[in-house]
Design brief:
Number of domains: 2
CATH class of the largest domain: Alpha Beta
Strand content: 25-35%
Radius of gyration: 20 Å
CATH architecture of the largest domain: 2-Layer Sandwich
Length: 330
């Protein structure tokens, strides 16, 4: 089926989506970038300096918002005015719950197919974890420990991290929004959170405006207790999730691309290894699934606006908890 795709924003993630979409065989792709200049590597693609110019000249089937977080809502409103039926918003959906609820209102009113780019739902390890939990392989879940840390200057070595989105409050940066994946997959695996206590600060010598460390204690609606630890500081990437049930334990290790689990009846660790995959595979998978999605036929791995609001509520409430220095209910 021939479809027309519009990509708004050509930062690192926008360029990744562009490359992946073209690799999937979609050729009718247009771009919106502030300069309006043509990309050297893709001289035949139409490039526009504004969403309005692109949408006046074309009728798009799909749009991808890959601009800084603080611009997501504004860009979404512009796209929705042209009633593009399928819209993909990079995570997080926006930087405030108030704006996210407005996106939800517009989505429902216009009956749009809007998905949010939580690509870790397409990580084979987390999918395996979700399957194990569904089968109650470790009985009832009692607790979880989630950690992610990576040294911010190493994220994009060719750029000055102090000038990037992560470092700027007005662009929606900070470790909690940058690494909101962890809040999102906690909701995806364990359901809605009831209470949260968070502490965060700019603790290091990194020259940034935003928080670089965040520690959070959570309780889900079903009574599961857990922690989420985030930082911009660890030189060696750490990304893990340990889940303790009343009949066993599951450990997901992103860096090692494996899931291990044991039960009270079988203390030998069982292993699911997926180190044959590449990081970009899940980005290809999520964008392919989105481009094939419709409102009445959505893959369970795709994140809806409603789901994306949940993780944003967790971050927003954790930040307020930090200021109030107490547990808060969502």
């Amino acid at each position: 089926m021939h479809i027309k795709v519009l990509i708004i924003g050509l930062g690192s993630i926008g360029q990744r989506h562009l490359k992946n979409i073209l690799s999937l065989g979609y050729k009718d792709v247009s771009l919106v970038r502030r300069s309006g200049s043509v990309l050297k590597n893709y001289p035949n693609l139409k490039v526009y300096s504004s969403i309005e110019k692109a949408c006046v000249e074309n009728k798009f089937d799909y749009a991808i918002i890959a601009t800084p977080t603080s611009k997501h809502f504004k860009d979404f409103k512009k796209i929705s005015n042209f009633k593009i039926p399928n819209i993909y918003i990079e995570k997080p959906i926006t930087h405030s719950v108030k704006e996210a609820l407005k996106i939800q209102e517009i989505t429902n009113k216009l009956k749009l197919n809007v998905k949010v780019g939580y690509d870790l739902h397409f990580d084979l390890g987390l999918i395996k974890v979700k399957e194990l939990l569904k089968k109650k392989s470790i009985g009832n879940v009692c607790s979880f420990q989630v950690e992610v840390g990576q040294y911010l200057p190493d994220w994009r070595p060719k750029q000055d991290y102090r000038k990037g989105m992560s470092a700027k409050i007005n662009l929606g940066g900070g470790v909690m929004l940058d690494l909101i994946h962890e809040f999102d997959y906690v909701y995806w695996l364990f359901g809605a959170v009831k209470n949260i206590f968070g502490k965060n600060k700019q603790a290091s010598s990194l020259e940034i405006e935003t928080e670089d460390i965040s520690l959070n204690i959570l309780e889900t609606q079903t009574g599961i207790l857990g922690t989420i630890s985030l930082d911009y500081l660890q030189k060696e990437l750490a990304r893990t999730c340990k889940i303790v049930g009343d009949k066993g334990t599951i450990i997901w290790n992103y860096k090692e691309s494996k899931v291990i689990w044991q039960t009270h009846d079988n203390l030998t660790w069982q292993e699911f290894n997926y180190n044959h995959t590449e990081r970009n595979d899940r980005f290809v998978s999520i964008i392919k699934t989105f481009l094939e999605s419709k409102n009445n036929n959505s893959d369970y791995r795709l994140t809806t606006v409603k789901d994306a609001i949940e993780s944003l509520k967790m971050v927003e409430t954790a930040k307020k908890s930090n200021l109030d220095n107490k547990f808060l209910s969502l």
